[in-house]
Amino acid sequence: MRISVIGCGYLGAVHAAAMAELGHEVVGIDVDAAKIAMLSAGRPPFFEPGLPEILASSVASGRLRFTTDISAVADADVHFVAVGTPQSADGDAADLRFVDAAFRSLADHVKAGDLIVGKSTVPVGTAARLAEELAVAAPGVTLVWNPEFLREGFAVQDTIGPDRLVYGVPDGDAGERAARILDHVYANAVASGTPVIVADYATAELVKVSANAFLATKISFINAMAEIAEVTGADVTKLADAIGHDARIGRRFLNAGVGFGGGCLPKDIRAFSARARELGKGEAIAFLDEIDKINLRRRSRVVELVEQQLGGDIVGKRVAMLGLAFKPHSDDVRDSPALEVAIRLVEAGADVVATDPQAIESSRLRAPQLKFEHSLESALRGAEIVVLLTEWPEFVSLDPDEAGDLVASKRVVDGRNSLDPARWRAAGWQYTGLGR
Ligand code: UGA
Predict the structure, then answer these.
(1) Where are the domains of the chain?
(2) Parallel, antiparallel, or unpaired: how do β-strands 25-29 and 2-6 relate?
(3) How far is residue 400's CA from residue 418's CA, in Å, rounded to a whole number?
(4) For the segment 42-82, what is each residue's pLDDT rounded down to a tens digit?
(5) Residue range 335-357, pLDDT digits in tens
(6) Is the beta carbon of 154 within 6 A of some atom in ligand 1?
(7) At the topology level of CATH, where does 2-199 sit?
(8) Distance of CA 260 from the midpoint of ligand 1 (Å)
(9) How far apart are CA 28 and CA 7, in angstroms?
(10) Number of other residues whose CB lies within 10 A of the CB of residue 349
(11) Is there a contact between 370 and 323 (Cβ–Cβ < 8 Å)?
(12) Which residue's CA lies nearest to atom 11 of ligand 1?
């Protein structure tokens, strides 16, 4: 099929490359010329495992190209909109500027019979509004809302083999035709039995935000238990293992620690709350405000623990910060708990040296006041406290004896509860986890 993808960020670039990998003819479009130049050369502008390989092969095969010229969409029949919907500068709501701009520019170049497929995460009601606008600006074009559930770090596999497909379609023949076209786009996944849920626009939009709200709730639930564990001497990790054996609860996404960050969960729950308030139903999901607060409190707790472990005086103390990305296997530092804690420790006067296998450059752009070391050894050398905030495999597998030879004082705050406390204590470390 002939496909265009508008927006080549974490979502769009992966989607474009994955669609080409599946055999479609794809053009990726973005307003950022530097990004387009890199992608055209087959190089991803961010770190995502598996993306360099499929990008390079699809660009080389000629099935995938990139441009800043929106008129290139005229060569395609199915147009994916994958632009960002960040939090507004002045509140919790999603900023729909990029979505609106993408639809306005698309409308000038699409033809009757084309399909526009929204992938961006939008407040419920957006698709219906855009469909009305399209009926005037581009008659005969059908809009589908097809939310994305990819996880950074696993984005390629999640796009090629999603665990479900959701199509939000209009009523009647146009909707049925749109669903058939999307079944062709995702023919491989559909043939391998991936569940397809065809729904109305509002349901499709809500599936996305409610899934992220549920995941955020699960994480904040266990972090709330960590707060209680901290005042009772209980171990939240054992608690999670024990309740996780109940199949109705499940162990996944019950890892207590410094909490969730990234470009999705935090802003999505805030935008959802803002939208519910607009709809007069703020109370229905008022608990999400609490979920957000629990999450942010964990960041403060890490800062507090570092201060405590250093005897209340952190000015000038050397802190080795292991991790900056919001999670491992990513260079994304948007709303990253690790980066925020690092910045707060610097503000409090600590001498923070941070390291991360992939996120140093993205962090430097946002927090030039931090000191960075590419080598883990250099970051550890002379540290008075080690703070682990992103559970990269190389940090989790650190040998406490070898690390002990590098640091000035054997103190560690394990902000992801991913080290073995017994092993670290046996090696002479003062170990502190979150909620254990
Ligand atoms: C999330 C969702 O998991 C995806 O399904 C969704 O498609 C995506 O947002 C999106 O909306 O685009 P992602 O942001 O890549 O994906 O990251 P997650 O794997 O969900 O992790 C989010 C945060 O939660 C990370 O900071 C992670 O460290 C934290 N987390 C995760 C915990 O603190 N504890 C856990 O048990 C699990």
Answers:
(1) 2-199, 209-293
(2) parallel
(3) 13
(4) 999 999 999 999 999 999 999 999 999 999 999 999 999 99
(5) 999 999 999 999 999 999 999 99
(6) no
(7) Rossmann fold (3.40.50)
(8) 7
(9) 7
(10) 12
(11) no
(12) 264
- Amino acid identity for residue 436 in this structure: R
CB of 77 closer than 8 Å to CB of 114: yes
| CB of 162 shorter than 6 A to ligand 1 | no
Q: What is the mean pLDDT of residues 171-189?
A: 98
The pTM (predicted TM-score) of the whole model is: 0.97
CB 151 less than 6 A from any atom of ligand 1: yes
Catalytic residue numbers? 264
Mean pLDDT over 10-16 rounds to: 97
- How far is CA 259 from each of CA 211, 279, 299, 335, 394, rounded to the nearest angstrom? 17, 29, 7, 11, 20
pLDDT digits (tens, 9 = 90+) for 142-163: 999 999 999 999 999 999 999 9
pLDDT band with cut points at 50, 70 and 90 for residue 276: very high
CATH number of 209-293: 1.10.1040.10
Residues 69 and 340: their CA atoms lie apart, in Å, by: 37
| Mean pLDDT for the chain overall | 97
Cα(328)–Cα(307) distance, integer angstroms: 25
CA 124 to centroid of ligand 1, rounded, Å: 21
